[in-house]
Amino acid sequence: MRVRLEPPPTYFVHVPKTGGVSLGTVLGVAFRRSECVRLKPPTLAQLAPSDLERFRFFHAMHQGRSLLELTGRTDLTCITMLRDPVERAVSQILYLRRTVARIPQTFTAAYLTRVAPIPHGDLDGCVHHDMFAEACDSQIRTLGILEDYTPLFKGSDRAAGGRSVLRPYELPPLMDTGDKARLLENARGWLGGMAAVGITERYAESVLLACDALGVPAPAGLPRQNVNPRRSDLTASYRSGLAPKVVDRLEELTWHDRQLYAYAFDLFLEQWARFRARPRRTYSVAPRVRNIVPGVRRVLRPLRKIARRMSGDTTR
Known about the structure:
alpha/beta, Rossmann fold, 5-stranded parallel β-sheet, 15 helices, about 45% helix
């Protein structure tokens, strides 16, 4: 067993509609609040690229690998979570419907016109809408796309812009973003080097793998954040309630995502087998102590300085 004071600096890649908000919360509590940053456009607009060096936990919300490279860090433990592509695509469309109905004022008039058939139609009637096609490649796109993120940072005239999975924006491309074969290849390459690859359908085990990579205890109960409020059973399948023609269409549209998911599932099974075959490799002390001892930051501060000096680490 290896014992260390703090968990390793970590980069969590949040793929849309995979349970990423909940997992990001679980991982983030292992770090001091000042060490954490959610990488999304409104936050980036307040930062210069050089500011990223000071953080130790990065929650990259729906953003691609080019943003990781802008951190300038080579010591980051990377973690992500993938989901069955058909289930994830349906979840994204249902999320779009809920959000457009609840807060339409946050969308442009042009976008609302474009998605108008979706909020009030059923899935059978919307399956050929172009928004379905966009929802069906989010995993290869998030993990495989290469874009220039510098226009979103502080000082840029585009820094006030924003994107979520529902509010796409265009960034200067560093590749042919329509080349799904290359997106898949890039995504596989990144996944292959990650410390923990989770699977939404095996969420409890995936949380254990992610926490083990950081050397921190898994939570006693898993949080439920940003989930469909009508789903009481998170293991229930959307697929089982869809018409066969809808499933066929979604499987056609998710071909590349399904190849990536199969690869990710194999990685998950390998990592889970290793986890079960050995005791915890790493034990990070500070997150555990912070959770149980009031005023522990005052105690840990001098210890942290000593540990950095001993390791030769001069970063914060």
